[in-house]
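Tutorial handout. Part one gives the primary structure; part two gives the three-dimensional structure as tokens.
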Amino acid sequence: MKITARPGRPARYGGPVAKNQNTFSSLTALRRRLAARAVHAGWRWMQRAGAVTAQTPGPLRFGAIGHGTRLAFPQGTVFGEPWIRLGDHCIIGEQVTLTAGMMPDLDLGAEPVLVLGNGVVIGRDSHVIADTRITIGNDTFCGPGVYITSTNHSYDDPHEPVGKQWPRSAPVEIGPGCWLGTGAVILPGARLGRNVVVAAGAVVRGEVPDHAVVAGAPARIVRRWEPETGWQPPLRTPAPVPIPDGVTPEQLRALAALAESE
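Part two.
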């Protein structure tokens, strides 16, 4: 039995579709594709135009912003810029909060409050809240969603809402070469040494020595490197083999193709 579409109604499933309906569907799909391309092209243009660098600071006036440093668009909450200093070749992801002081338009004195060294990477949706001094050393990498703060709520008065009680502040120092995993929290008073690894979701307070791996909430040392004994407990996986100097991308692709053929 042949199924046909009634006037003004769509055909039943599996039935023939009128020619004008096919034409209409094709035009609708084409318009959607063109609109999608335009939206994506416009967004890429906005990302390029809205990025903050030393040459294109936009409305932000940092105390210092180094060569090659870039804040991706869209930026998160940023205030207290005169007391924020960013080193060279830093990468700040989208929607990253960078604040100095408890609120905008405060006079915080002559010294910087938030200082990022050279080559610092802060992943998207992270927050660095510096009510008192926070320093992040050279070549420290932060995954997405990292929270670093020099201020914490107090709850001394049992009769007053916690959010209305005066907070406590303490400086935070993160040494060079650290890695802070996704969702890590660095609390006021924390001091991380050189090349410290903070596991994803860890909550760090207090002092962490050089070359340590910390995990948990509250974080504790789960592995540490010593010159005499190396990593303790020993690493479970072999160290990655670096690519030799002078190897070109073409040679790497050729080696990969050879490995696949075998």
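Part three, for discussion. Helices lie at 19-50, 249-261. The mean pLDDT is 90.
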